[in-house]
Fold this protein.
Amino acid sequence: MQEIEVLKPAENIPVPADDGLSSGEHTVMTHLVDAWDSYVHLPVQHPDDLEEFRHALHRLQHLVMIREVRSRHSDYTNEEKRRES
């Protein structure tokens, strides 16, 4: 089995106060970072596991961050409003 380099856990990275995320969204993002930090320490069972987990986390981060875009730019992201115009 191929050995995979285990990345070091992310340090607590300060988040800018004006990033637009709510406190709940920050909580979710923190939990996603914690999930990564925990996952990288698990024993490797398959060579693709780490990459697949990383891709899945990126998708989850995208879903959280798109909420900020929707809240700031609802005129672009609200399908109902676009149909009315």
User: Anything to note?
Assistant: The helical segments are 23-39, 49-72, 74-77, 79-84. The first helix runs from residue 23 to 39.
